[in-house]
Design goal:
Length: about 100
Amino acid sequence: MANYDTQKKQLMNEVRSVLNEVEDLYSSSIDNGSEQSKELKERFMEKLNQTKGKLREVESSVVDTARATVERTDELVREKPYYAVGIAALTGLVAGLLIGHCRR
């Protein structure tokens, strides 16, 4: 789970970085004063803000889903520990057989 969290945080940081760079480019762009240019910049900024809002929603949803999955898995392991041990043993057996078969 830690690896997933690390990857998720890195991805979210990269997306935020790109959005910040786009916003910086927008702020530093030259405005020629035409109505069309102003309208285009306003629409662009509106879309950028919508994208940032959606990013926050997705991030929140992913975090909530991951948290719920971890909690449910923890409950299942606590309720039926022998099932968890059995599944882990079966997974190890299958992986061992596949690795052994590949080495032949």
